[in-house]
Amino acid sequence: MSWTLNKDDKLKFMKQMGMWYLQNDTCESIERSNHENNNIAMNCCSGTPMISCHYRDKPSVIPCHDDVPSMDKGALSYWLRNPLLMTHNKAD
To answer: pTM of the predicted model, to two decimals?
Structure first.
């Protein structure tokens, strides 16, 4: 898990690390205690992680390259800085 100063960055890190299962932003507003929303909530949950890249210079479950901004100014892609990760990824 990441240590962040705000919820926005924490959500981005969770999505980038494959720890996010809500299909869209509308699903975030559903009240957990309201049983009438149960069917809506079930439609919001994905069986697989909803992965998206937000920072190319931070760890991720998929390669995030130049088309994604870096969190630290001028930093290279996490995947390009760690050649062993690219080798391991190709073996899969």
So the answer is: 0.70
